Amino acid sequence: MKILILGATGRTGKLLLSEALARGHQVHVLVRDKDKVTVGNSRLGIFEGLPTRGKDLSAAMQGCEAVMSVLNISRNSDFPWSKLRTPPGFLSNTLKNLITQCENEGIKRVIVMSAYGVGETRTSLPAPFRWLIDHSNIGAAYREHESQERLLEQSSLDWTVVRPVGLTNEMGNQEVDVALDAATKLKMTISRRAAAHFMLDCLEQSLYIRQKPNIATR
């Protein structure tokens, strides 16, 4: 399958890209800086540009059958009040552009990474973390994830919104528990690698279409 990956130079995106290539897919990536893509592969096409710019996204989507996005709102550091590096409205503006370009290119399948704690799962988060979402720059990402989820719900795309709990860089257990409701209790961490594997499983097996699976380490 030929896939466009957005966010391929991020911590989760690098793993998603490597795993997609390892599984034999042809992959296009759209990045701001080509030099940040360190993977070399004959099945990899690298496009430089911005996902909020129609012509850039259209060029990267040519010939693709699906789009996967692990874009996020980034800060200068992991400190909750650290200044945002990502422009305001980045995720929602990207999604508006993506929906338009998917319709133009005839692409139906879109898989987007959101976050556990968005929408109805907010009440399942520990109270201190809910406070941080409301009072620090962590909240910018959650608000944008909510916006992009609403945009997908209003579209005619065959979307899947994957909501991982707290992402870690662990390389061990890759088994995943899945919940489609906020009431089901999940562990509060999952490795980035396991989340990337799950997203590709959703693509390859046509899982959770127009659903929002919450995922955690088993």
How would you describe what is shown here?
- The protein has 218 residues and is an alpha/beta fold.
- It has a single domain (2-114, 139-161, 193-210), classed as NAD(P)-binding Rossmann-like Domain (Rossmann fold, 3-Layer(aba) Sandwich).
- It is 34% helix and 21% strand.
- It has helices spanning 11-22, 54-61, 90-105, 127-135, 138-154, 192-204, and strands at 2-6, 26-31, 44-48, 66-69, 109-113, 158-164, 166-168, 176-179, 189-191, 214-217.
- The strands form two sheets. Strands 3-2-1-4-5-6-10-8 form an eight-stranded mixed β-sheet, with helices on both faces.
- The longest helix is centred in the C-terminal third of the chain and has 17 residues, at 138-154.
Would you summarize the structure shown here?
This protein has 218 residues and is α/β, with parallel strands linked by helices. Helices cover 34% and strands 21% of the residues. Helix 1 (11-22) packs across helix 6 (192-204) and helix 2 (54-61) packs across helix 3.
Look up the CATH topology: Rossmann fold
**Average pLDDT across residues?**
95
Overall 3D form: globular
**Radius of gyration based on Cα positions:** 16 Å
Strand arrangement across the biggest beta sheet = 3-2-1-4-5-6-10-8
How much of the sequence is in beta strands? 15-25%
Unreliable parts: none
Oligomer status: single chain
Structural class based on helices, strands and sheet pairing: alpha/beta
**The number of domains:** 1
Provide the succession of SSEs. EHEEHEHEHHEEEEHE
Kindly report how far apart the N and C termini lie.
29 Å
What is the architecture at the second tier of CATH?
3-Layer(aba) Sandwich
